[in-house]
Amino acid sequence: MPNTKKTDYVILGLLSHEPLTGYDIKQRMDTSLSLFWGASYGSIYPALEGLLRDKKIKAADVSTNGREKTQYTITAKGTKYLKQWLSEPVEKDEFRSETLLKLFFGNCTEPSDSLAHIVQFRKTAEETLAVLHQMEASLESVLKEDPAHRYYLLTVRCGIRMYEAYEAWCGEAQKELGTKQ
Amino acid sequence: MPNTKKTDYVILGLLSHEPLTGYDIKQRMDTSLSLFWGASYGSIYPALEGLLRDKKIKAADVSTNGREKTQYTITAKGTKYLKQWLSEPVEKDEFRSETLLKLFFGNCTEPSDSLAHIVQFRKTAEETLAVLHQMEASLESVLKEDPAHRYYLLTVRCGIRMYEAYEAWCGEAQKELGTKQ
DNA sequence: CTTACCATGTAAGGCGTTACATGATTCA
DNA sequence: TGAATCATGTAACGCCTTACATGGTAAG
Question: For the whole prediction, is pTM greater than 0.85?
Fold first, then answer.
């Protein structure tokens, strides 16, 4: 049974820390998890429904004023299911780079096209690094009182290593393509 | 028009270098491109059909003995289409890591689970790195006679930087989780 | 008063994998 | 003779994104 839906686990993982609404979950995806994961509303809400049906989470209406709002909490069954998954070996990590793909076919275009892709790649790498460094600093500062963010910090540091590597490679690649023609 | 199918471009890119069969294309995906791209037969053969219909490639029967074999060649129309894509800015690069995902939720399990994921990650990083170093060496040795592999080499070196970063991070992470309990 | 944000959801459609089905050849 | 590799394809199914639809609230 390869390739089982991971969205369920991500949601359970997030709920294991605190109760959240579907909207909150999406926020986490776009910030804390964005480095290595993502999901849209179109997959989050249906997943929540499924988890509810399976009794892995439970819902509570916490509407404020006229704004409807459903907050989800993980159940014992959900926790067990999550823990089981966490204890199993990783199936696969994916890296899919359109940048490297276009670069690979660099023989088919002007070198200036390839250089442009590298410049763009470098720019996003630098921007991402800036964000990650900020995250690292703020996580480090709250770590003593709240050791819950220890693992979060670990993933941020992985991102920093990665993007530093990208940046270094961009410099090397730009030199390579710039000089020799 | 976001998210247009990239498989077409990959196939055209590969064919721009030499005529290939569907089987050959799959081989390239699993070797030269595997670092940053992939595709299954179930997406390759249908894509070839579409490209043929659009006159972006042409087919030739090169069956040997009783073994049927169709070799595809890129047309002028296909070349133009590929070049256009190569000149456009990259839409997105994707990184989706189940390892980092499980690690992020490390608070929910035993630290030994998290350590096991890191050990596994490190092992694959080392193995990949060994392969990439071999590729780098062989590409460097043929580069003088055949400068066509210049861009291929560039992507291999990006992979080396990446996996070196992963490896370094694994060491750091193991120390972090190992000592502080 | 209008923009941005909070909040929930659905429908259509695309893209791709897995598994299956088939058969020839090469090599040990 | 059996295993690995060459070679082509299809069908079912799953998962996800995009776009759409709706409406309340806070801030400027």
Answer: yes
